[in-house]
Each structure stands twice: as C-alpha cells, then as structure tokens.
Amino acid sequence: xxxxxxxxxxxxxxxxxxxxxxxxxxxxxxxxxxxxxxxxxxxxxxxxxxxxxxxxxxxxxxxxxxxxxxxxxxxxxxxxxxxxxxxxxxxxxxxxxxxxxxxxxxxxxxxxxxxxxxxxxxxxxxxxxxxxxxxxxxxxxxxxxxxxxxxxxxxxxxxxxxxxxxxxxxxxxxxxxxxxxxxxxxxxxxxxxxxxxxxxxxxxxxxxxxxxxxxxxxxxxxxxxxxxxxxxxxxxxxxxxxxxxxxxxxxxxxxxxxxxxxxxxxxxxxxxxxxxxxxxxxxxxxxxxxxxxxxxxxxxxxxxxxxxxxxxxxxxxxxxxxxxxxxxxxxxxxxxxxxxxxxxxxxxxxxxxxxxxxxxxxxxxxxxxxxxxxxxxxxxxxxxxxxxxxxxxxxxxxxxxxxxxxxxxxxxxxxxxxxxxxxxxxxxxxxxxx
Length: 434
Description:
- This protein is an alpha/beta fold.
- The chain folds into 2 domains: 210 residues, Enolpyruvate transferase domain (UDP-n-acetylglucosamine1-carboxyvinyl-transferase, Chain, Alpha-beta prism); 152 residues, UDP-n-acetylglucosamine1-carboxyvinyl-transferase, Chain (Alpha-beta prism), CATH 3.65.10.10.
- The chain has 12 helices and 20 strands.
- It has a 4-stranded mixed sheet. A 4-stranded mixed sheet has the order 3-4-2-13, covered by helices on one side.
- The chain is globular, with a radius of gyration of 21 Å.
- The two termini are 21 Å apart.
C-alpha cells in the first residue's frame, strides 16, 4: 500500500488571496503581497481588477505590487469572473457600493450559480444591481445607486462568507454615519472582517453579528504574506490519514479557527496532528502541521452547524469516511448544491458508482466505513462535472485503489491547485521524515 512521506509548502489561501487583491487595490499607498494563490479563480479576480484600472504588477511568481486607486474606471467590456463565485459575489458588493457602471459575467458553470442571495441585500441598501440571466443568475448589471446607501441590519438566510462579505464591502462606500450590520445563522469564515481590521477599517464582530460603520478612514496599504491554503492541505491530511504509516509536514498553513473543521474531525478519528511555528500572517493565524496516523476509528457526523467551517472539505472528508471504522453521516449540506457543481448530487452519484451501501437524505447521506475497504474496479468514468475539489478528492481515493480510477476532468485542478499532481508525486516518493 502507498504511504505519504515528506514536507510541502501549500499554495496561498484562495479565499484570503481574493480579498487581499481587492482590498489592497482600494487602499491608500503602495503594497506588496506575497504567496498569492496561482489558480485560475484568483487570476480571474486579478484580471477584473486590472480591467477596472487598478495598478497591479507581478514581481515574482506569486507576488504582486499594488498601487491603491481612488476610483474604478468602468470597463468597456463585461468583466469575466471565469468560474469564480468568490470573484463575482465579492466584486458585486465592492462595485455596487462604489456605483460603477458595468456588467459582471462568467463561464457557463458560474452563470448557473445563485445570485439572488447578494442582489436582495445589496438592493435593500440602495445599490443598483440586477440580474440579466435566467433564475436571477449572472450576468449581473451594476449602475450608480438610485439613492444614498442606507443602513441595514440584514439577517442571512444561510451562513455564507461570500454574501456577508459582499454586504460589508458595499458598506465601505456609505456615509460615515451609516451602520451596516450582518447577522449569520451560524459563523462562516471571517477572512474579510480580519483583513478589513488589519487595513484600518472599523469592523466589530460578536459571535455571528458583524458591524461596519460607513465610509471609513482610508484603508492603509501594507505588505502582506498570504498563509498556505488549509483547503488544499485537506487533501494531503486525508491522504496521510487513510494510508497507515504516513508522515507529512505541511508548512505555513492558515489555521483560522473557522476553517479548522477537518482538522478537528481528523483528530477525533485518531490521526496524530501537532502544530509548530505558530504566528500571524495577513491578520490570520498560521503554522506548520505534522500528521502521523496508523488506524482510524469512530463515527464521523457532520451536522448543519459544522458545514460553514468545512464546506470545501466535504468531498475529501467523504473519502476519509470510507476508511474509518464507524459510520459517516452528512446532514444539512444543501449549500453543496450551489458550489462549482451540485457537489452533493455528484458525491452521491460517485459513491453509488463505487458500490457504497448508501443511505441518501434530501440534505446529505450516510454509510458505514471500513479500514480494509477495497476500492472496486470501475470501468465507466467517474463524472466530476468540472469540479476541481471532486477531482482531487478522487485522486486521494486513488491512493487506496488497486487499479487506477477513471476520473473525468483532471485538468480542472488548475482552478485552485495547479501544482496538485506535482505535490502528489513528491509525497508518494519522498523518503520518511526524521
């Protein structure tokens, strides 16, 4: 059986990279940001900002120099957000608040993702934003506000960092006395709030309640190092966990407590995980992760309250569940239907193709895991619906398969992790850490 051994630096955190590019682009002064994620999603944000007149210069492979701008220049063509939901939703808040006349669009997949969730609160604030597509999806058209931006206390119908961020970013352009409050049903990742505070904005958070006062003192440019992406680390952590005798060290990974759901589950399942070199980067805690494991046991139950802390890790967590001595249960995962694909439907389809004895619910599924489970030989390609995280999760499963799984759409890993296959090869072949 394969084992994973070695040490890796992860690509920069995708969520933080998006926010760093956007917020440094409107900060006063010259910034340098290092460790920016190099996947296609973040490049979509970069290109959109450049099309808006932002001065962003690449100085190294993952490092950029950014000169903050006072205003955006309306582009002549629609801004193409590619496959990135983060790009279109966060830019919608930023640009609707600023009142820039333009159209935001994306690829076929992005044009099927729901945008009503940002249109409703932004419109209630007074922003001028509307859908040009069917079912209130992209393309989105933005124009100058019909009236001054209004105070808002908006209760999110779902925990969504993207919707919360869109509202807060629009609030940056309001009158100084305007109060913008976002209330979540469950805490979602807080990268926007952390970065706004790091740049000098007044953002107060108490549990699931987030308050921003209107037009801030100017955001102040600064140099940033982006921590490694914990969602990318998840593939190696699960890979090491399901391959007894593995030992891997992941360097300078973001350890935001609202992104630690997968690590918590691994620990309770028997994986030996330790942290070292703890410090802060870009307002975020980060450090090195060392994983060692021999046997996994215990039930894994993912409840609705846990979903926001590990929404991107559920595909690879499902692979973990297949090899754990216990029952894997996922509930409250309706939001997975609105990611790059219908991830919930795709996972159910994949598990059935793998002949897993599956109990399916409207909002999830469950099955019994087994440490000695043999991955069956599959003749028909496993469909991934152009979803990079499904592809990478299946490649981790491949490490336990006697014959290679026919995985569709391997090129899509470039959306978030262009170096995935190179990293995989290095961990399978690198000698054991001392």
